[in-house]
Specification:
The chain is built from 3 helices and no strands. It has 74 residues and is mostly helical. Helix 1 packs antiparallel against helix 2.
Length: 74
């Protein structure tokens, strides 16, 4: 999951993540949760990892937005 987040944000501020990147991240998380659905403890672990990956995504996108605002003139 962290690899999907990393690849979505690999371009830095010049190439922000696209809708396709967001769909890809959602698909990866959904597939991981679906694969673990038969084991309650595994689902819990995968959900924690998904939360961690999404928090990483939010942190990195927030940093991109913070850097982009002065360029835009806000």
């Amino acid at each position: 999951m962290n690899e999907a987040v990393g690849s979505a944000l690999a371009g830095g501020a010049r190439t922000p993540p696209t809708v396709a990147d967001g769909v890809n991240i959602a698909r990866v998380i959904t597939n991981e949760l679906d694969s673990a659905r038969f084991d309650p403890l595994l689902v819990r672990a995968v959900a924690r990892n998904a939360t961690s990956s999404l928090e990483l995504l939010v942190t990195r996108v927030d940093a991109l937005v913070s850097r982009a605002l002065p360029v835009i003139g806000m």
